[in-house]
Amino acid sequence: MNLSTKFLGIKMVNSLVLASGILGVTGSNLAAVCRDGCGAATTKSIWLKFHAGHANPTVLHLGNGNLINAVGLPHGGIEEARVEIESFRKLSKSPLFASIAGSRLEEYAATVEAVAKLKPDLIELNISCPNVEDEFGKPFACDVNLAAEATKLAKARCGKIPLAVKLSPNVANIAQIAKAVEAAGADAIVAINTVGPGMVIDIETAQPILANRVGGLSGPAVKPVAVKAVYDIYKAVKIPIIGVGGISSGRDAIEIMQAGATLVGVGSAVVDGGSEVFAKIAKEMEAWCKQHKIKNISEVIGLAHRS
Ligand code: SIN
Is residue 169 lining ligand 1, measured as CB closer than 6 Å? Predict the structure, then answer.
């Protein structure tokens, strides 16, 4: 049984991807995660210029692996990204996906242009962070026209590097947004970003605990939301999907692939279990495939859509 795969021409040892913002702080962190068994690693979301993010507390553990976070997309700017990507390339031959943040359409476009020069294997356009609404308003992924416009501008600046657009589950019809970004030139969809936003109140102080007051939910509790989003998107588009949301076992990975994901992003499970979780998930996927006489992992993609 072989878990290796090819995604938009990118060769990977397996279908597992480190989701953006998790351990992706330095090139050596990212390389270590790849050594520990993920097929590709995603950087934290890159800004053109320094972006501070939110004050602490930024992450709360809700139990059973579930998290609420409002980190606020902190990043040092394009020079920091250059150092991160160059040091990763010296340490690892694994594929590297570069996530991009921004506040205005023109800023996204300029950042994509600058990041494309650093030659990541894929560019992930993060237009769906729910934690910067006070600064920048609703994420572009919540508006069909803005999502399409951001995609079009980014695609024109990616050159030959494939473009994946990260969508928000916090919309009435995610499939409609996916269709619009596909028509605007996206090569892949990443679904989903965190759910919410939600709020946790300290009842002794009667105040929200997160410094940003609200944050996005992730972990096993959101997996059914991610599976449903991927299922709906798979029916609506032809481009491949990177399914993300509450994946922590081989069975979870198979489930989201059956919904339609080609690759599987892992985030919160790494916060709790460390990067060893990738080897564990890959081993469990392999065992499940052997048990079900599946020779190639691609046979699993979209199986839930058989009538
Ligand atoms: C954050 O930095 O607040 C989370 C990133 C995201 O949700 O895209």
Answer: no
